Amino acid sequence: QVHLVESGGGLVQAGGSLRLSCTASRRTSGRYAMGWFRQAPGKEREFAAAITWSTGITRYADSVKGRFTISRDNAKNTVYLQMNSLKPEDTAVYYCTLGVTTTGPWGDDWGQGTQVTVSS
Q: How far apart are CA 67 and CA 75, in angstroms?
């Protein structure tokens, strides 16, 4: 089992920025990517962004493309999500998980999540 810890959430005004971090306790064989997902109240969890550990290939949901940037620090087993030009509809709990590729499949291990609240 891999332990994932997210941090960096908070309350920000629309148009502001936040940087989220996700650190994995260890790298897992067969899990070559890290993904960020988010879940707003009353909605299903949805994909936001993903990156591969080795090559840094990225993928973004259309809703965040051009505003969010995902990056990684392999030495720290950490992936970052830089979120700019935040909108109220970005309000959600953000989670990270490991996957085989940037399109999944995704693992069963999830972090505890970090709350992002964007006020209008």
A: 26
List the structure tokens of 98: 């490991």
Of 92, 95, 94, the residue nearest 117 (C-alpha): 92
Q: Which helix (H) or strand (E) covers residue 39, if one does?
A: strand 33-39
Distance CA 74, CA 95 (A): 19
pLDDT tens digits along 85-111: 999 999 999 999 999 999 999 988 998
The residues facing 71 across adjacent strands are 80
Q: How confident is the model at residue 43 (pLDDT cuts 50, 70, 90)?
A: very high
Map residue 17 onto helix, strand or coil. coil
